[in-house]
Request: fold
Amino acid sequence: MITHILFDFDGTLVQSMDLSLRLLNELSGKYRYRSVSPADVQRLKAVPIPERFRQIGLPLHRIPAISLEFLSLYHQALPTLRPVEGAREMLASLKAEGLGLSVLSSNSVDNISAFLRQNGMELFDHVFSSNNLFGKDRSIARFLRRFGLKARELLYVGDELRDVEACRLAGVEVIAVTWGFDPAPLLRSGKPDFLAGTPGEVFETVRRLRAESAGGRSS
Reply:
């Protein structure tokens, strides 16, 4: 039975797409890649992240250096960010069900914790940062080992194809949410276990899975 839910942060819990795009463009001149126009957004959203970076001329090996400055600018803009509509209520409902809740994100622990505190969303048992943009599967595996959880006891909730792919590698079921950074067709290409269009659907999916698991044990 699912006992713990691991959430992505940007796009999943916080509406940060516009800010991320603005900061990406602010840094484009310094790091010599092409800025992204509004007309580019939908086209880029239809392809995986590595291809997005390739199309704007940003080599993957330069991401770590850019990330440090990006996260610093992100921190300054925290007061402008808002939670995804319904996310706070979803988290409270999941907590009331007795589930453990944690965050695993490529954002920084400082940024995540500050946002949660500013928005009355301090409902999480743990907040972790996955430093490698494409190594979240290893972070999920470490999370399982650290807390002595079996893969079937953990559920991940994220908004990007890379979240789905990481969960596949880690052997953990994933709910892909369609209100974040990646559109539904791209998410479906990774074959997530579940797809949700609202935070309420996330809660209903979790409650159904737990009920099915409890029913299976008693039969």
Notes: Residues 17-80 form one domain. DSSP finds eleven helices and six strands in the chain. The chain has two domains: 4-15+83-218, 17-80. The longest strand covers residues 100-105.
